[in-house]
Design a protein that fits this description.
The chain is of the alpha+beta class and 138 residues long. The protein is 22% helix and 41% strand. Strands 1, 2, 3, 4, 5, 6, 7 and 8 form an 8-stranded mixed sheet that branches. A hairpin with a 2-residue loop joins strand 3 (31-37) and strand 4 (40-42). The two termini are 15 Å apart.
Length: 138
């Protein structure tokens, strides 16, 4: 898989219409939040619904993935995968949350075979290094 990361403005020029995939890099106590999806750990994600802003979509997806929590979100970057439509990435700073079995905070990523799109997660985490100042684990 080839992953290209852009500033949001660069990708907005390229993809003005169509479905927008939205991924959320959640941080809780300096750890990356992943949710279980199809028996693999993954970033919370969604597509932007009609009439919904990308930020509203990001908030909805994170809430659905981790349950009740207090958090803020902001746009980080945009991405493409293998030259195809990608989407947008939001970072979420989670201040209050109780971990559960299907959503956990990781200081080190789970093994690649247990993680959906592990290379994409690593690339995005590197892009967001000011947000995740701890050691590089990818």
């Amino acid at each position: 898989m080839d992953c290209t990361i852009y500033t949001p403005k660069e990708l907005k020029r390229k993809y003005r219409a169509g479905k927008k995939r939205i991924l959320i890099l959640g941080r809780y106590q300096q750890k990356l939040v992943l949710a279980r999806r199809e028996n693999l750990w993954a970033l919370p994600e969604t597509e932007c619904r009609r009439g919904e802003s990308m930020e509203e979509s990001a908030r909805r997806a994170l809430g659905e993935a981790i349950g009740e929590a207090v958090f803020t979100v902001q746009l980080l970057c945009a991405f493409e995968e293998d030259g195809q439509d990608g989407g947008y990435v939001y970072v979420a700073d989670i201040s209050e949350w109780e971990e559960k079995a299907d959503a956990c905070a990781f200081s080190d990523l789970p093994a690649p075979e247990e993680t959906r799109e592990a290379l994409l997660i690593c690339a995005l985490r590197r892009w967001a290094w000011p947000f995740f100042p701890e050691k590089e684990t990818c």
